[in-house]
């Protein structure tokens, strides 16, 4: 068969190419550009090869931030995913309660991130904040601006408050897609509540949970605004996560070279983890089918 | 296995039903024998699934009682009624193997593993699933999934009844036939009480000993397939059962005969006796099988109703002639070899198979 070549079709791809170029490729290439050069001003710049990368990867403050980041992200996932599933299971399935709980759950998701930080910053204060004051009344010495542990817990609770709803809504959507016949059949088969969860609800939620875990991983791994507003990364460096470390390096100290190098490493970490997670989950699904 | 009694049973989805229209199921009184195979047959929305769900316990009736072997189970949950049910669409547990799926209802009830194994293998053998027992259920086709659902319905041998809610809807025609035979075989062998909901008359007539025809929330007739064919108790049964259905025409009774559009159809004394006591709308019904059509020279001077022949369809084993006189269109079933000559003919009604209905109910 003779293949008809018509290269005019490529012109149709151009608009998309321009949009992607401006929104993603050019900015990313700028970062690559900075990461391999030492730039003083437009006329004075030196190619430095992998020096910035080596410097950044050997930086012990960055190692600390990375470890904090990993612990933080894992805590977020281990709390929000099970909690989200549990809440989704208890939500009403019909009647006015459905819309009421949907609205309530969506509220935290609609609040701008820096406002979330501000809310908790005020809420947690021991002198004027309702939360902080009550905790101190209970005899617990709580002060998130001085005690690293308190700061950690506050940032975590804030994230749980802000984002668990997302998991709840995703799981709820998954649960709603299960036809009634499944529950009826399970009843007739004499299945226990646990068996219904294990063999019907959990498998049906699997695909939304994959999305949920990916979203929560990416977002929490890149978290910036809320801890920045709430604790400013303190006390000391206790709640300084990767994004904040990076911002300090780039905007605070104006070390653009190392910051660019680190940005790329950061990007690759997220890409790699997501890819590995997605591939493993999807392959597990396929293996089971065979 | 159990006998099922429906005692003045009725159901309405409204909290405060007033008229008959508010009832999804009108008041009924039935006894279904232990070990019988019953088919609930009717069009969509006639209440057959409602009735099935009441028997299985997924729905609590608003009026009346359901008894299993004389024991009131009206308010018992499905799991306490000891029944099995197969649904319209396959319900399988995705993450389990076929074996685990079949074993699930038994294991949930703490049956010992040896017995579970024996039952699962027996049922798998009957349904040709033996080779697939170790596979994950998730990757199977719709046919096989539904076969597994059937298997889960059949795997317990101590159930009071097995209920089927249009279980073969998603199955392809060839396999449908095979599975129906299997179910029939299993019924003959084990004699469980089976209740089978369907809107397909062929399915109902081949599967069941007794067919329960439902229409508009009512049971209009409960009988053997033969009774439904020969003696439809309601015009709906006449029309719904049979292919094509019964011819039903408005008629007037006068001068010892039925008159349809000015044509006289002779009736027996039995007919006239019964109909004289009736008021209301009178209809005459006759199955296409019981009509004779004379054409050509045979029609000359023959006694009967003069009709125009509109079309003749040859369906291989038999022919269907569509005829018309006045406003009535009548279908006649003819043998394969019968010839139809010309555009008109004489139609003869066999008096013993001519039925009269008053307000849709059979009178004679």
From TrEMBL, chain A:
Q: Which InterPro entries does the record match to this protein?
A: MetI-like, MetI-like_sf, Sugar_ABC_transporter
- Name the source's superkingdom: Bacteria
The keyword Transport appears for this protein: yes
Q: Which residues cross the membrane?
A: 12-36, 70-91, 103-123, 151-175, 196-218, 259-281
**Location relative to the cell:** Cell membrane
Keyword annotations for this protein, in alphabetical order, are: Membrane, Transmembrane, Transmembrane helix, Transport
Picking any one GO biological process from the record gives: transmembrane transport
Q: Which CDD domains match?
A: TM_PBP2
Q: Which residues form the ABC transmembrane type-1 domain?
A: 66-277
Topology relative to the membrane: Multi-pass membrane protein
One Pfam entry for this protein is BPD_transp_1
Which cellular components does GO assign to this protein? Answer: plasma membrane
Q: Which family does it belong to?
A: Belongs to the binding-protein-dependent transport system permease family.
Return the PANTHER family for the record.
Answer: GLUCOSE IMPORT SYSTEM PERMEASE PROTEIN GLCT, TREHALOSE TRANSPORT SYSTEM PERMEASE PROTEIN SUGA
What is this protein called in UniProt?
A: Sugar ABC transporter permease
Q: Which organism's genome codes for this protein?
A: Thalassospira povalilytica
Automatic annotation (TrEMBL), chain B:
Does Nucleotide-binding show up as a keyword for this record? Answer: yes
Highest taxon in the source lineage: Bacteria
Identify a single GO molecular function assigned to this protein.
ATP hydrolysis activity
What is stated as this protein's family in its record? Belongs to the ABC transporter superfamily.
List, alphabetically, the SMART domains matched: AAA
Name the GO cellular-component terms.
ATP-binding cassette (ABC) transporter complex, substrate-binding subunit-containing
InterPro entries tied to this protein: AAA+_ATPase, ABC_transporter-like_ATP-bd, ABC_transpr_FbpC, ABC_transpr_MalK/UgpC-like, Mo/tungstate-bd_C_term_dom, NA-bd_OB-fold, OB_MalK-like, P-loop_NTPase
Classification via SUPFAM superfamilies: MOP-like, P-loop containing nucleoside triphosphate hydrolases
Organism, scientific name: Thalassospira povalilytica
Membrane recorded as keyword: yes
Q: What is this protein called?
A: ABC transporter ATP-binding protein
Ranges where the ABC transporter domain occurs: 4-241
Supply the Pfam families for this chain. ABC_tran (PF00005), OB_MalK (PF17912)
Entry keywords, A to Z: ATP-binding, Cell membrane, Membrane, Nucleotide-binding, Transport
């Amino acid at each position: 068969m003779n293949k008809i070549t018509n290269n005019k079709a490529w012109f149709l791809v151009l608009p998309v190419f321009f949009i992607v170029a401006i929104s993603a490729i050019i900015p990313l290439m700028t970062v690559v550009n900075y990461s391999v050069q030492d730039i003083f001003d437009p006329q004075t710049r030196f190619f430095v090869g992998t020096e910035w990368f080596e410097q950044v990867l050997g930086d012990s403050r960055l190692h600390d931030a990375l470890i904090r980041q990993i612990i933080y992200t894992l805590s977020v996932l281990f709390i929000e995913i099970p909690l989200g599933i549990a809440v989704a299971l208890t939500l009403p399935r019909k009647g006015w309660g459905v819309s009421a709980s949907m609205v309530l759950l969506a509220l935290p998701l609609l609040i701008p991130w820096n406002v979330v930080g501000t809310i908790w910053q005020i809420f947690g204060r021991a002198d004027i904040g309702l939360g902080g004051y009550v905790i101190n009344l209970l005899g617990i010495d709580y002060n998130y601006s001085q005690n690293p542990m308190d700061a950690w817990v506050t940032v975590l609770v804030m994230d749980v408050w802000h984002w668990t709803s997302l998991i709840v809504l995703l799981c709820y959507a998954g649960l709603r897609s299960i036809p009634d016949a499944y529950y009826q059949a399970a009843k007739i088969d004499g299945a226990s509540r646990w068996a219904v969860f294990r063999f019907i609800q959990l498998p049906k939620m699997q695909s939304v949970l994959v999305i949920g875990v990916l979203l929560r991983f990416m977002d929490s791994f890149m978290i910036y605004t809320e801890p920045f507003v709430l604790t400013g990364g303190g006390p000391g460096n206790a709640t300084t996560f990767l994004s904040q470390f990076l911002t300090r390096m780039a905007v605070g100290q104006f070390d653009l070279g190392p910051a660019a190098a680190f940005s790329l490493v950061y990007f690759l970490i997220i890409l790699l983890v997501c890819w590995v997670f997605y591939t493993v989950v999807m392959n597990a699904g396929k293996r089971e089918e065979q | 296995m159990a006998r099922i009694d429906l005692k003045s049973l009725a159901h309405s989805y409204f909290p405060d039903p007033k008229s008959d229209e508010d009832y999804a199921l009108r008041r009924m009184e039935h006894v279904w024998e232990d070990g019988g195979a019953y088919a609930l047959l009717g069009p969509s929305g006639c209440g057959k699934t409602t009735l099935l769900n009441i028997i299985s316990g997924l729905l609590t009736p608003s009026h009346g009682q359901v008894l299993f072997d004389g024991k009131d189970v009206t308010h018992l949950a499905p799991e306490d009624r000891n029944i099995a049910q197969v649904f319209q669409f396959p319900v399988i547990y995705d993450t389990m193997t076929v074996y685990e799926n079949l074993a699930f209802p038994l294991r949930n009830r703490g049956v010992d593993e040896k017995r579970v194994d024996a039952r699962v293998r027996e049922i798998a053998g009957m349904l040709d699933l033996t080779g697939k027992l170790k596979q994950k259920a998730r990757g199977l086709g719709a046919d096989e999934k539904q076969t597994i659902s059937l298997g889960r319905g059949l795997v317990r041998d101590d159930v009071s009844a097995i209920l089927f809610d249009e279980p073969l809807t998603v199955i392809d025609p060839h396999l449908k036939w095979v599975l129906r035979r299997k179910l029939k075989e299993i019924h003959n062998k084990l004699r469980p009480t089976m209740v089978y909901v369907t809107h397909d008359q062929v399915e109902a007539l081949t599967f069941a000993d007794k067919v329960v025809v439902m229409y508009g929330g009512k049971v209009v007739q409960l009988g053997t397939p033969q009774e439904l064919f020969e003696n439809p108790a309601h015009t709906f049964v006449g029309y719904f059962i049979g292919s094509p259905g019964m011819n039903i025409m408005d008629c007037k009774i006068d001068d010892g005969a039925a008159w349809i559009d000015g044509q006289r159809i002779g009736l027996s004394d039995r007919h006239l006796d019964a109909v004289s006591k009736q008021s209301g709308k009178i209809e005459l019904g006759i199955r296409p099988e019981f009509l004779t059509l004379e054409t050509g020279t045979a029609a000359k001077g023959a006694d009967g109703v003069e009709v125009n022949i509109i079309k003749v369809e040859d369906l291989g084993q038999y022919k269907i002639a569509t005829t018309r006189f006045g406003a009535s269109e009548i279908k006649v079933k003819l043998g394969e070899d019968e010839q139809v000559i010309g555009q008109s003919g004489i139609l003869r009604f066999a008096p013993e198979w001519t039925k009269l209905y008053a307000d849709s109910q059979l009178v004679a």
